[in-house]
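Researcher: Re-running this chain for the archive, since the previous output was lost when a drive failed. Same request as before.
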Amino acid sequence: MILLFAVCLAFSGMTLLALAMKRHQPQILDRKLPEPRARLARWSGWACLAVSLVCVLQVWPTGLALFMAIGLFAFAGLPLVFLLPYQQRLAWRLAMALPIASGALALVSA
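Model: Regenerated structure tokens:
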């Protein structure tokens, strides 16, 4: 379950990093973000990716975990690539809901 949580955090991190870019802000939110909020989205995105890496490090040894984390980040970014052109709002909603749902599921199953 921790790997599901890591994937969901990676998806949220990728979405927040996309939201930090001026190009994707109108796509996702229909408006531009002020610079402090864009900076907050950037830092939050990197924080989500870091927590995802920590989750992966708990499952595998360090060398394998780093390799798997890079693949996990790419795997988590793939749905975002497909959602941004067609369902921008869904990408934002999923980025907010998936970590909460997977975290609750991980806590219940533990």
